[in-house]
Every structure is written in structure tokens, then in C-alpha cells.
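sry for the spam today, last one i promise. C-alpha cells for design, 170 residues
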């Protein structure tokens, strides 16, 4: 009985350690990118805006015992790449997947250009999140969300107006 309990406890402990260590993989998705629309819509609620960059962009998908996060990066010319969207399924947020995927993408593009941009709403915690990933405030396009979207966009009850760009050297 004691042996069985000890064995079970060891098994659970090892299982948890395996889970913690994880088997995180990032794949580049080349076909059927619209299969990821549920996640893409988390980052950008208007599908017509996603259509502007999805096909020309590179779609990265992070898996850890199933799909967790996605990110789309476009080549904007002049040695500049842009992260167009980054999203993690709500139930898996704040577990490090977003940061991990962004770091993966930075490493992937290192040496392939001079800068990586990210444009987002003027939301303090999102700006802090990107800064914690090594990005610095760059510039803003005033009223972008008002002029380019069919309807008002909100984040945590605040209407999005300007698009704020952050930049990281590659
Ligand atoms: C932004 C997003 C991609 C982050 O993904 P994630 O997998 O949760 O990211 P990580 O777990 O690596 O890092 C999360 C960090 O961001 C910050 N953060 C995340 N959600 C937050 C929230 N609701 N409020 C405040 N800070 C938050 C925290 O600093 C957090 O680190 P911590 O958990 O150690 O405190 C995710 O919140 C998301 O998919 N949001 C919806 C889509 C979106 O808004 N995308 C960004 C615009 S392009």
C-alpha cells in the first residue's frame, strides 16, 4: 500500500515536472491560415483588417500540448518587419506563451532586417508588455482606429483612437 502510494506520488511529481518543462514548438503555417481566425480575431476584431496582412504575412503558431498562441509578421520593406497581431487563447494567457512567441519571432528575424515594429492601441499594460519584450516606443498614428475600423474599438472599456508603434532593433 505504502509502495503504491509512493509510486503514485512519484508518478504525479514526474508528470508535473514534464508538463512544466513542456514541449513547446513554434511552427510556420503556410496554408489554410484562416483556420486560425478565432485567435487572429482576438488581436484584431475586424476580419477585413486581418485580410490586409494575413496572406502576405508569415504566420507563427505556438503549440504546447495544443495550440496556444499565434503571431503574424509582415515584411514592410526598408529592412523593417512588423508584428501585425499576437494573441493567446484567453484560458492560456499569463502563462508566458505570448512573450515566448515574440522572443522566438525576434530571434527568427535577427540579421534579416534592421528593425521590428509592433503597432497597437494606446493601452498601458499592452505597451508595458511589449516594453518588457525589448520594444521601445517609436511613433503614433493619430485616430488610426477611428479612421480605419467600421466601428469603435474598445479595450477594457476604453475606446481605441491612436495606433502606437513600438520598435526593436534586429
Ligand atoms: C497580449 C497577449 C498576446 C499576451 O499574451 P500572453 O500569452 O498572456 O503573454 P505572457 O503570458 O507572455 O505575458 C503576459 C504579461 O503581459 C502582461 N499582461 C497580460 N495580460 C494582462 C492584463 N490583462 N492586465 C495587465 N497586464 C497583463 C503582464 O505583464 C503579463 O506578465 P505576468 O503574467 O508575468 O504579470 C494576450 O493578452 C492576448 O492574446 N490578448 C488579446 C489579443 C491582444 O490584445 N493582442 C495584442 C494586440 S496586437
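last one done:
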Amino acid at each position: 500500500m505504502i509502495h503504491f502510494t509512493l509510486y503514485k506520488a512519484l508518478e504525479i511529481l514526474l508528470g508535473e515536472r514534464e508538463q512544466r518543462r513542456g514541449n513547446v514548438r513554434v511552427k510556420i503555417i503556410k496554408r489554410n491560415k484562416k483556420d486560425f481566425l478565432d485567435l487572429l480575431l482576438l488581436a484584431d476584431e475586424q476580419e477585413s483588417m486581418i485580410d490586409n496582412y494575413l496572406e502576405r504575412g508569415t504566420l507563427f503558431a505556438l503549440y504546447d500540448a495544443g495550440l496556444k498562441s499565434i503571431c503574424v509578421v509582415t515584411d514592410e520593406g526598408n529592412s523593417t518587419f512588423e508584428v501585425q497581431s499576437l494573441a493567446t487563447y484567453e484560458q492560456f494567457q499569463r502563462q508566458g506563451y505570448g512573450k515566448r512567441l515574440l522572443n522566438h519571432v525576434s530571434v527568427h528575424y535577427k540579421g534579416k532586417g534592421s528593425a521590428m515594429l509592433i503597432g497597437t492601441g494606446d493601452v498601458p499594460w499592452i505597451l508595458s508588455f511589449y516594453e518588457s519584450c525589448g520594444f521601445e516606443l517609436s511613433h503614433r498614428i493619430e485616430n488610426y482606429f477611428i479612421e480605419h475600423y467600421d466601428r469603435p474599438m474598445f479595450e477594457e472599456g476604453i475606446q481605441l483612437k491612436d495606433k502606437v508603434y513600438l520598435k526593436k532593433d534586429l
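Residues 42-43, 69, 85-88, 93-99, 120, 125-126, 129 surround coenzyme A (CB under 6 Å). ok im logging off now
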